[in-house]
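re the bet — no i am not wrong, look at it urself. input seq straight from the record:
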Amino acid sequence: MFLGSAIISLLFGGALFASDLAGNWKLDVAKSNQHQFATATAQMKQTGPDTYHVVYDGARKSGEKTHQEASTTYDGKKHESSAGASVVDEHPDASTWTFTRYKDGKIVNQMRTVVSKGNTTATTTTKDLGADGKAVQEVFVWERQP
């Protein structure tokens, strides 16, 4: 699945940014409804007015270690990705970030991250197409770290 890269784009979707999301985050596995990760952390840094860089480290439930880095611009415009797809990242309100990935003109991944009012929790909901072509939804709950 494309989820790992998509999460980088959003964190969180791509879908944790601006003053609300900049900082260090840890996946709360117990509160999340996802099947991929045993652990995950994210470091978010704002690098421009609408641009952010995220570094993800973690371990899949299989034990495989993961490390990914990406920069994302939340300008609502379609951008081509290196994976032969295009993405649209948006920041529609003060607490919400969205990420939509297109391949061959069809939506193949959507993510929506909402930050809590206290800026301590970020919840990312993803919708992906599985290998069988059926929709798969997961929920990732991130807790802000000191």
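see?? The two ends are 31 Å apart (CA to CA). told u. also The chain is about 10% helix and 55% strand. so pay up
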